[in-house]
Design a protein that fits this description.
The protein has four helices and seven strands. The termini are far apart.
């Protein structure tokens, strides 16, 4: 079975274009934009109830002000995804990302206003903040190679769920 020369050339052109666009984006996207994209990816993964997506934005050494780590937050997210319907997370940026060198890595912090809502057994509930009174959280990220990951969150409030 011979592959047409024209088909082969078309495939090579498509692969080259896709690779070029990916390379251009990786080279031109600012660190601030990458940081905000990581936060948006995490927010979207939570709303989509994607445990894999939510965990993918966390650094292995993640911790927060409630004492949770990357390992201990996994079962909490599983319970949240199982027990809350229509999870909605509203995030507004309160500050621009501030990036500083830290040893062989770089770290960044950004302050966000967050409100998390959903429904439990058909009843609407606010899990953290409200749209009119969001909770202010500070998110720290660490750059691992070219990728930014969330390493710390400060300002979280315990949800009113058991």
């Amino acid at each position: 079975m011979a592959i047409s020369r024209h088909l082969l050339i078309a495939v090579i052109i498509i692969v080259t274009l896709v690779g070029g666009v990916w390379f251009w984006r990786a080279c031109t996207e600012t660190d601030g934009a990458k940081i905000l994209r990581v936060i948006e990816e995490g927010r979207q993964a939570m709303e989509d109830k994607s445990l894999r997506g939510a965990m993918a934005v966390l650094a292995p050494d993640y911790h927060d002000n409630l004492g949770f780590t990357a390992q201990s937050v996994r079962p909490i997210l599983q319970r949240l995804f199982f027990g809350v319907e229509g999870l909605r997370i509203e995030v507004r940026r309160r500050s621009l990302p501030v990036i500083v060198p830290s040893g062989e890595h770089r770290t960044a912090t950004v302050t966000l206003a967050v409100a998390v809502s959903g429904a439990v057994q058909g009843q609407p509930v606010y899990l953290m903040g409200t749209p009119s009174a969001p909770v202010e959280v500070t998110v720290a990220l660490t750059q691992d190679g070219r990728k930014w990951l969330i390493s710390e969150v400060d300002g979280l409030a315990r949800p009113p769920l058991e």
